[in-house]
## 1
Amino acid sequence: MTLPAKPLIDQFSRRITYLRLSVTDRCDLRCTYCMPERMQFVPKAEVLSFEELRRLAQGFIARGVRKIRLTGGEPLVRRDVLDLVRALGREVGAGLDELTMTTNGMRLAEFAAPLADAGVRRINVSLDTRDRALFQQLARRDGLMQVLAGIAAAKAVGLKVKLNTVALKGLNEAELPALIAWAHGEGHDLTLIEVMPLGEIEGDRFDHYLPLTAVRESLEGHLTLTPSAHRSGGPARYFDVAETGGRLGLITPLTNNFCESCNRVRVTATGQLAMCLGGEAEVDLRAALRSDEPEGRIDAALDLAMRTKPERHSFMIRGHGEAPALARHMSATGG
Ligand code: SAM
């Protein structure tokens, strides 16, 4: 692969090749650990237009980004999301190695085929439980059947599905072995994620914080987990599970910091470049896009971001009653 004229290399010599681009902060679920029921979404006028998203993505590709993940909020609630997928899908095999999406699966039954037609090959679907009542409790919407239908539709059109599951003490904790077995039986990898203290919610995240060190120990009571060299370009570390023949990923921002290998940045739906999921600092790409000289301003903004991307996030979950480490919700940054 030839390097672009000005690759994105940060002050710690990490090369940034992966962009998570949020297309909306809105969502059709209200997962209790993610956001409050009455979440304040940004006014639509502040959200980047389709054309701005496309131009921004091109700016990143020109600087050597090889993988773009569309996310949100829930990307599939945005009306013109398929236009963007089609436009960026044309870059796959040229400027991009991969275009992917993270979705809650609620609308996937309808969108799976057009996504595959537009050049998406792999997709992440968030699924915390296969228990309908628990799904409703966690997501505050009765959506499990829709999500399962979405996952089945994705599989049917040949999309490689990876499931993402936030591990929650006393909620889906007991179900995790069965969820992993089901996912692997269906041919899907599954990645467990530690809950992160991002943004205000009604409850206390510490009540359900489940360190993955404990989950791994418990799983190893009856499963053989062998560390795998597999990498998906994100922060997960993988294990082959002998008994299921599948792969289990662990994303451990709290118990095992992985920032030294960070290769990504995120852009919020309003065009704010977040250099780190766990840092407040943002660079305003929307202002650059809407200026008289967008290309130069975007380049300069990206250079500034590379000089200021922090070495690592520093959020922790220590105990009850803590304020979130960051005001910004995961759904706003682009999960
Ligand atoms: N709506 C899409 C989805 O559900 O996959 C994309 C955005 S969502 C914010 C991305 C992922 O972040 C989901 O898997 C969700 O469970 C996870 N998530 C949200 N808030 C989180 C938090 N505070 N800690 C850990 N994961 C979180």
## 2
Amino acid sequence: MGQFRFITAGESHGKGLTTIVEGMVAGLALEAAYINKELKRRQQGYGRGPRMGIEEDKAEIMSGIRYGLTIGSPIALFIANRDWQNWRETISVAPVDREAEPVTRPRPGHADLAGVIKYGLRDIRPILERASARETAARVAAGAIAKRFLEELGIAIHSHTVAIGGVRAPLRDGSPRHYGLGEASSTDWQQVENSPVRCADAETEKEMIAAIDKAKAEGDTLGGVFELIAAGVPIGLGSHVSWDRRLDGKIAQAIMCINAVKGVEIGAGFPLAGLRGSQAHDVIEPGPPPVTVSLSQSSGRAAEEWTEKAIASEAKQSLPWHHATNRAGGIEGGISNGEDIVVTAVVKPIATLAKPLPSVDLRSGEMVNAHYERSDVCVVPAAGVIGEAMLAIVLADACLQKFGGDNLKETLANYRHYLSFYVVADGGP
Ligand code: EPS
């Protein structure tokens, strides 16, 4: 990561989570309420466990903001763990008289076993505390800052649940997923926000809820698939020139590193394997692109406030060509091509089972059931919100690398200047 970076710290049942975000420009309007809204979205979702009833995630801004505006210095955020009150002895920073009983029954599919060996511990507790998806609250807080910045450039990011267990949402407008242009404009995002499983299709939503209920009753867990869409992305983020500058590579890493994610696709993804070259690509046609995204659609802001979005949209309209489809998911040769960026991720069923899988006790070497305290049944809806945060972080970083600037006005001026010569240059090498 380059211009825009962040690091998180904190154990799941420790005092709280800390994140430090570095590289954000000065002059960006940012309030805790904006970050807290994102934190709340992550906490919702049908299938979460009892822990979410305890926590009410709120970010305390410790630095980097003055009078509601960023000042260019690192932004430190703290999110308290309410549950820490119940774990003060177990997660004590200072030595205690009587240490907690060690966790010695590793859960298949979790970091438990490889973690204790790697870190030379006899207790799995420190591994599971940090491997816990609790850490993703800090990522969502960092991602909210990236999202706020991208809004200024007219870029909006959405997510929705495509599948839970074996239940799959129908394809939009009957066409194969990812193939249409203007994905963001063809989904009812308000409906997604209102859905407990973050799925816009009411019938599928019911089936997903029933599947979660069934898995819960049977002491099991469910995985699924979420989709991310970034709309309003300019042409030219990332680069084909070096492996580590390719935008799709950066996105894949940022999404794959979300807890429980086991697969990432960009655009048409894995089904491309079965297609011929003549079917797999997005034909370039003459004439300006069709207008697909209405200016006020992606957020609650009025159309006239979306100055940058309007400018970007106008710049796109000035091009003498357009893509007929979006199988590439908005990225060709590691460079954003101006279409919606479409990313899909597979979330495995989480490894903590109420009816635990067989394991081996690390102390006795005997066969036992894996460790269980309590857990979620399905985290796919929450994973989509975390995916939005990670995608926002990658895109904010890519925008800052491309357009630079130390204050927002400077960045926006650079952005407008770039858009002003969007049209293919005449002459040159
Ligand atoms: C998690 C186990 C559960 C989840 C937790 C992730 O927590 P606990 O062990 O306290 O019941 O609720 O997720 C969160 C706390 C969160 O904020 O998302 C795990 O083992 O990964």
